Amino acid sequence: MSRLRNGQVINQRYQVLSFLGQGSFARVYLTSDQKWRGNLVALKEIPTGHYSDKEYAHFNAHFLQEAAFLMRLQHTGLPRVVEFFAEGQNYYLALEWVPGHTLEQEVTQRDSVSQVDAMDWGLQLAEVLRYLHSQKPYPVLLGDLKPANVVIDYQGRLRVIDFGVARYASPQQAREYALVSPGFSPPEQYQAGQLDERCDLYSWAATLWWCLHPVPLERYRFQVPSLLDLRQDLSPAFDGLLLRCLEPDRTHRFHSADQVIQALRGVQRETNVRKVSSPSEILSALYRDQKKKFDF
């Protein structure tokens, strides 16, 4: 399928400005919203012409329902879905454009990522997962969390920009055509069948592990090693948290994003306590505490 041309208008509304990139199942363009001039929109184009009849029926049955649900999501870590529509053999998802650079770009530009930064990023992403997984009547699975799908905006906040594959985790919904990202997708995502929130927790931990040691995780064949031998500055508690989420057997992982957030905050508290280690620092901290008691 050929790319959309710069200047081309889709759905009598979105004028293509540039091609942003291509993923496993969609192309993304930066467009200008002619309805609201000046607004920039990321337009995701999902071709269906290559689908078999069975694949198309499966995709068509769920896309409209799920896209309508995505429009109702409101979280600071997610771009707003403007609208969705079909044109020809293609489906389109129009999302708020998030300026910034990806987490993947941020990591590759640094010499290394500190544990403090990794924990801050992890908490922001886990909050997004907790929001999605708490949706009713069924949790919404993000499905493809990885550094290339997360943007750091100009305020330093993390935004998950690619959640077009997010979908319900309903008991009736078998994942016959699961999208996978080698190294970031758990073993169960390579198989047909029911997925749950723990697949997102695996991808969450794989994202942070890669940020701390950016090598291809697929080389480990789901036996991801401890980072302690690779990074002497990391705490065993944080390393253990990541490894638990990276268990190949999902029954051994944390069961919810809420559990991950509680564990991560515990590691943050432990890290903050360890920062005050020298006698002079301890005395200084005690002095500040005592002074506060007598300041009126």
**So, CATH architecture of the largest domain?**
Orthogonal Bundle
CATH fold-level assignment of the largest domain: Transferase(Phosphotransferase), domain 1
Tell me the strand order in the biggest sheet.
1-2-3-4-6-5
The tally of helices reads 7
Shape: globular
Task: Give an overview of the whole structure.
The structure is a single chain. The protein folds into 2 domains: 9-96, Phosphorylase Kinase, domain 1 (2-Layer Sandwich), CATH 3.30.200; 101-275, Transferase(Phosphotransferase) domain 1 (Transferase(Phosphotransferase), domain 1, Orthogonal Bundle). It contains 7 helices and 11 strands. With 296 residues, it is α+β, with helices and mostly antiparallel strands. The model has no long low-confidence stretch (mean pLDDT 86). A 6-stranded antiparallel beta sheet has the order 1-2-3-4-6-5, with helices on one face. A 3-stranded antiparallel beta sheet has the order 7-9-10. It has a two-stranded antiparallel sheet with strand order 8-11. 36% of the residues lie in helices and 18% in strands.
Produce the secondary structure layout.
Layout: E1 9-10, E2 14-22, E3 27-33, E4 40-47, H1 53-71, E5 81-87, E6 90-96, E7 101-102, H2 103-109, H3 115-133, E8 140-141, E9 150-152, E10 158-160, E11 167-168, H4 197-212, H5 236-245, H6 257-275, H7 279-294
Antiparallel strand pairs: 1-2, 2-3, 3-4, 4-6, 5-6, 7-9, 8-11, 9-10
